[in-house]
Write a structure and sequence with these properties.
single chain, globular, mainly beta, Methylamine Dehydrogenase, Chain H, about 300 residues
């Protein structure tokens, strides 16, 4: 559901003054999970909504959230104090390991999560979906999938197959990264991944069955952002937001007039964006309210 009106601005209720919505506290980032959605504001306030059968939207008290990752049924974040995860914890995917130092990236999936700190790539949760973590050269982005994990480092994009089903080989090609000359962004979904190559500016996707064409990238003009859902993919280019792949629930049917996008996130079967003035728009599956921005954080000026 999209809230777009000249008199509507997203903001955190607790920071509303008698003069209206505090202008410096705008939504800056959105993270769409399996059936829930979370946002981070410019003052580090975290708000979540949607499915809460396992507590995945019950965020703890966070002070100055700087990193946010909504997983399949859990959520992880980094604030000014420490990293924390909440929601599903059947395999330890919400148990943050001790000793993390200066976490700079975080990614969550249904059964495990990974982050990057001073020691490199660190993962926790289901061991059979973490696998043997390779060594990396100055990693900057980590992404976790159902049967693979990927990292963007100084050498490019690398993925490793985790084989949780003990098949013995990567029959979906989730860890077979295409040639990328100068990758600058990486997005990892459960069964496929995408990256932006800077020279020339282009999106490449790999892995999965490509049943809905989620790896068949349309023509894009200078793509700057990319995100991956279960079986759909989205990017931001000079024309705006472009999505492709599965659209059973309308998750790839991009609304018109979205403005200048600063954050893009493809969830399980829904997609969300934030524009430059803090307006958030979500579309696609909404049976748990994951695409309906809660009224409690909508302020009419």
């Amino acid at each position: 559901m999209s809230y777009r009106n000249n008199k509507i601005l997203l903001c955190v209720v607790t920071l509303v003054t008698l003069w209206g919505c505090e202008p410096v506290n705008r939504i800056q980032e959105v993270s769409a999970g399996g059936m829930h959605t979370c946002t981070r504001s410019s003052l580090g306030v975290t708000t979540c909504w949607g499915n809460n059968d396992l507590g995945q939207i019950d965020a703890p008290t966070l002070i100055g959230t700087s990193l946010l990752a909504a997983g399949g049924s859990n959520t992880c974040a980094m604030d000014s104090q420490a990293a924390s995860c909440w929601g599903l914890n059947s395999t330890g995917q919400s148990d943050i390991p001790e000793g993390l130092s200066n976490l700079t990236a975080i990614s969550a999936e249904e059964t495990h999560a990974c982050g990057i700190d001073d020691s490199g790539v660190v993962c926790w949760g289901a061991a059979n979906q973490i696998g043997a973590i390779p060594s990396f050269d100055n990693p900057v982005v980590v992404g976790v999938g159902a049967t693979h994990n990927c990292v963007l480092d100084a050498e490019g994009v690398s993925c490793w197959f985790t084989d949780p089903n003990e098949l013995g080989f990567d029959f979906l090609g989730v860890a077979v990264v295409p040639f990328l000359l100068n990758p600058i962004q990486l997005a990892v979904g459960p069964f496929h991944s995408c990256a932006i190559d800077a020279i020339p500016a282009a999106v490449s996707c790999w892995g999965g069955f490509n049943t809905f064409g989620e790896n068949t990238v349309p023509d894009l003009s200078n793509p700057s952002k990319v995100s991956v859902g279960y079986e759909h993919s989205c990017a931001v280019d000079d024309t705006g937001v472009v999505c492709w792949g599965d659209s059973t629930y309308g998750q790839a049917d991009v609304p018109a007039d979205l403005g200048t996008i600063i954050s893009l996130s493809a969830g399980g079967y829904h997609t969300c964006v934030v524009d430059s003035v803090g307006l958030i728009s979500c579309w696609g599956r909404d049976d748990s309210g994951q695409s309906t921005v809660p009224e409690a954080i909508i302020i009419t000026l």
